[in-house]
Design a protein that fits this description.
The protein is α+β, with helices and mostly antiparallel strands. The protein has one domain: 3-Layer(aba) Sandwich (L-fuculose-1-phosphate Aldolase). The chain is 38% helix and 17% strand. It contains 7 helices and 9 strands, in the order H-E-E-E-H-E-H-E-H-E-E-H-E-E-H-H. Strands 3-2-1-4-9-8-7 form a 7-stranded mixed sheet, with helices on both faces. Strands 5-6 form a two-stranded antiparallel sheet. Strand 7, helix 5 and strand 8 form a beta-alpha-beta unit. The protein starts with a helix and ends in an 11-residue tail after the last helix.
């Protein structure tokens, strides 16, 4: 798991979705949670950059070395979606730009619906690193595996590191497409009927919160 997170960090930085100390990663590890340490550079991670924490211990009780300042958000996400195995918090520019406009990211294509559900909702700005942010994110993750954090970034969940990374890449790509379309008109998004027809074709196994892939 940790080696996969290290590789994901490199790919996130290569894709310009994090710089310097921006962003953090975590995954389930031997019954606990391995999360990047505070100040870790996602593009140059090694095993010593991960801190193993207890999933249900209060943030202030977690031991040194100091875990990511967004630990509360990660722990709340794991509690909200217990089948989650990996979490990515990054700063993808297209998704951030969309959030600055006060917009959710709706399902634009079948690929989006299959991997991200009906939408990636926008959470209005809350001060980063706070337990208030973690609680608010947890409420939205009940219905979506990805949340746009206004003026901040995104959080994406996965049943594996590769799924979380795929969802992040797809979210950022679709946010860019949506911004381009908004620049010239009002884009057509998938309707509820469109998504129901996709459920028929796929057996409904991709609808988030019901039957997960």
């Amino acid at each position: 798991m940790i080696e996969q997170l290290i590789e994901a960090g490199r790919q996130i930085v290569s894709a310009h979705m994090a710089r310097g100390w921006g962003g953090n990663l975590s995954g389930r590890y031997q019954g606990n949670i391995a999360i990047t340490r505070s100040g870790a550079d996602l593009g140059q991670l090694n095993r010593s950059d991960f801190v193993v924490v207890t999933p249900r211990a209060p943030v202030h009780q977690q031991r040194l070395p100091k875990p990511s300042s967004e630990l509360a958000m990660h722990l709340t996400a794991y509690q909200t979606q217990p089948t989650t195995q990996a979490i990515i918090h990054a700063h993808p520019p297209n998704a951030i730009a969309l959030g600055l406009l006060g917009r959710d990211l709706p399902a634009l294509t079948p690929d989006f619906y299959v991997h991200l559900g009906t939408s990636a909702p926008l959470l209005s700005y809350i001060t980063p690193t706070t337990e208030e942010l973690g609680a608010a994110v947890g409420e939205l993750l009940v219905s979506s595996p990805a949340v746009l954090l206004q003026n901040h970034g995104v959080i994406v969940l996965g049943h594996s590191v590769s799924q979380a990374l795929l969802r992040l890449m797809l979210l950022e790509e679709q946010a860019g497409i949506y911004l381009q379309a908004l620049a010239v008109g009002e884009p057509r998004i998938l309707t509820e009927e469109d998504m129901l027809r996709l459920d028929v074709v796929t057996g409904g196994r991709y609808r988030y919160g019901e039957r997960m892939p």
